Request: fold
Amino acid sequence: MQILKHWRLERGAAAQNNLAWLYFDKSFADQSESTNTFSSEALRELSAVCAELKTNAPSKISGLVILSAKENGFAAGADIDEFTSFKSADEAYAMTVLGNEVFDQIAALPFPTLAMIHGFCMGGGTELALACRYRIMDDGAKTKMALPEVMIGIVPGWGGAKRMPALIGAMQALDLMLTGRGVDARKAKLMGLVDVVTPRRHFINAAKQFLLKAPAPHQPAFKDAVTNWPIIRGIVANASRKQVAKRARKDHYPAPYAIIDLWEKFGGDPRNVPRENPASQYSLYSHPTTANLVRIFKLQSRLKALGAGDSGVKHVHVIGAGVMGGDIAAWCALRGLKVTLQDLDYARIAPAIKRAAEMFKKRLKLPHLVQAAMDRLMPDVKGDGVAHCDLVIEAIVENADIKKKLYAQIEPRMKLDAILASNTSSIPLQELSGGLARPERLVGIHFFNPVAQMMLVEIVESPQTSADVMKRAQAFVKKIDKLPLPVKSAPGFLVNRILTPYMTEAQIMLESGIPAETIDAAAKEFGMPMGPIELADVVGLDVGLAVGTELHKAGNPQPKKIQELVAAKKLGKKSGEGFYKWINGKPQKTDASSSVSTIDLAPLWMRMTLPAVNEAVACVREGIVADVDLCDAGVIFGTGFAPHRGGPINYLRASGKEKLLAEMKALEQAHGPRFKADAGWDNI
Amino acid sequence: MKKVYVVDGARTPFLKAKSKPGPFSGGDLAVGCGRPLLARQRFAPTEFDEVIIGAAMPSADEANIGRVVSLRLGCGDKVPAWTVMRNCASGMQALDSACMNILAGKSNLVLAGGTDAMSHAPLLFGPQMVNWLADWYGAKSFGQRTGVAVQFRLAYLAPVIAILKGLTDPIVKLSMGQTAEIVAERFGITRQMMDAFAADSHLRVLAGCAAGHFSEIEPLIDSLGNIYTSDDGVRTDSTPDRLAKLRPVFDKVYGNVTAGNSSQVTDGAAMLILASEEAVARHNLQPIGAIIDSQWSALDPSEMGLGPVHAITPMLVRHGMSLQDLDALEINEAFAAQALGCLAAWESTSYCTEKLGLDRPFGSIDREKFNVDGGAIAIGHPIGASGARVVLHALKTLQRTGGKHAAASLCIGGGQGGAMLLERL
Reply:
């Protein structure tokens, strides 16, 4: 047999039940990879192992156990670097076929096969596990099983779309495949995905005992089995399509629709799909969304890498228990840090504690974990935490004088190496560092609302911020599972600066008589997750007005209606009325569908989004972020900007610079100089 | 004699038990006051040598609640922690155990105190139900199960209320309130005297609150966002007239002890940091005072309310002190009858000679120095915590008034008294 680089096969003797143990251990010779991924080389080696086991005395093997030798998990799925290196759809398709053939080999082995799963088990990892007859899963908090292919615009094409519905029924399987979400061991057992859940320390013993009995493979319950019957299948597929349509448009995101088709019409096997069918690997591979989503996935990894290293932060002191400060404090406590939360009195802190308790219950579920998180989050009216913490996050009112006064009080009490961070969304740090004894430790750590949902955190660097403080701030953000984006300190930083012209233009359009519903529908057609008028209401009109005023450029028109609404205390969703009336957390929109369908929305979204694109260009030119990729990443993860378009600069490039410049010119003539192209367009 | 220093202390608001379990468990309460207490120290929670918690009724899921509290407070895996139980003086026992280890040189820095969530006291199955359940789980076949099932009686479901069991003396079979009736009878303490004392206790707490005498209270926030800033059993309307309308609850109909002139069933915790001289120097601490002596004494369980007399008297005598030498005296008000009984006993020639072995009455103390800011009748008596509360408040009173010596004491169900002699530095 060939020499293996990624798998280690151990054959047990008769005394050890004649079990064969196959360890997935990517590049084990030099341990250059800490994570198992399926490259074509790893797949071919697995194929060779199967051939060897099948031909050489299979009668002496009573079972094959497949497990990972990596600490972090079973397998992360396909090798994304190899995937992005494909030059043609043919290469991508060949990889699909290879994966299917190898996993079919596993499924056809003449003895019982058992996958033992710990840590993350994603995509191809899950598909390998599904090709085995049995699965045993570790019960640890980090153990998760998922088919997340949909998130990068492809389908679970190595047998996942075939074997998972067969194993647990289509309703459950489609839910996992269409959302890409992961399930823990408890949930996986409940769904029937795994046969046994046990701590990893018992894996060897469990494998021996389980294969000794070799029970009948798992069968779906009757209610799950019927979902695969031909008559029922169509009903389930149509219901799923309706569900998907609520979240993703088919023209923007073809993958979820392809997954449903693949399962319903082609037995879950991509080899059965005709090349020209929209559900085929060829169609998906050539769709621009796929490349954009893959790029976003890689950008996410890049942002994570920016948070490498140790922040040294174990105790965070948050000052200001409002919506932002309170939620930042809760998030840090959720992620295992000790947190003291300071405000002027208990009444200001109590609502934050209440929200934290709700979030902990929702996310941690188990009472002892909720209790531990609550214990980590301490109300601290006296501010005793300042003296012990490694990081202060200030999230008080957006007023430079008040912030500076606070810094003057707390800086002398802070540990010498503690970081002082402001969550300011608009005040340049240079204005705040004036009175500090150690201005090099001031950094902006700018979270977005709602803290629990928004992945991005801007790490704002002033000219005085030390490189070490920047690095530690980035590492802190990574530690709490957010994505750090280093930005230069200029008004609005990156995200708000780019979002504001878009929001402003939408409001100017509203004031010119275009219905809010039409404007929102246009933005959604472009690919925004939520229209700008509705978003303004959700964020809060007072907040929006403050940012808009701060970033307003002389000579440009300023929306009036938002000022009137704020003056009338109509602040949006939180007060029950803003641009829309809100009932039970839902905006009351008049049915615009009839009129919308007759209007060409493209000119509307063009007019709203181009100011944002133009501002993004300006940010890149000014060096607010290091490069174009980080600009796109920031705008996507900070605002949800049309992910399938890959961010504003990517959208610019894909649409063609000349075409958009012409649009800008026309808009400039129609609406004024705010549409004047930034000087940076020349270099894009 | 070597001193044990009290570095700092804090307690929760004492929360009166309503009909349902309160918002905090015993562990939650200890964490609730221990967390801010530790946050303001110069040293890290991991630097304690041990944690000792007094608890008289810890819940079933907080076994060795001392260790639970220690870990939840972030003292870390390596700090040993234990739980002590001496009924109403459990919190004081925790302090005394800490003192003993510090004086013996085994510990230098100890977190000690007490906690009890009395509103969480469980309802138990009676022995008949337990036996029936044992038979049921033991029955294997359908026939056996049927046989067991028909033996079931609805009456088996009647719960045993653990808190009532806990507050009844198992030897003399008297409730704690009945022992107070006995003390009242011995010293001729009338219903009017009890109600007047109770009303005064409320007034003193209200005045103390207004004057800011309860700085040791750390407010709590529950998971619903409710804020608890002060002892919620204190009433502005507890006048002698209103108290006179309440019915006696222990010796029913003809007795004198009512819910109004007894301490309240309450949830609460109090925690102190005790240190040796060495620890004070090492961490550059500024103690608020010192515990210079302690005394445990015992007496007839049916007069347990006089325990403080038996504990305080020999402790003061061996320091050559009289009651008048104290600048503050805190005696836990388990019952108005019992607190008044202690004062009467010290003034009684016969009691002092016969029971205390003195040759004359021990004397009296100015009412201004005795429970100056009220007591458990208004504040409440979470039995595990009260011992730590009275010590802490006595020290806080010395700090405020500039007095030198104080004593803190409790009567203990089962017929004991515990006391500590305190000094301002």
User: Anything to note?
Assistant: Chain A touches chain B through 22 residues (CB under 8 Å). Residues 320 and 396 of chain A are 5 Å apart (CA to CA).
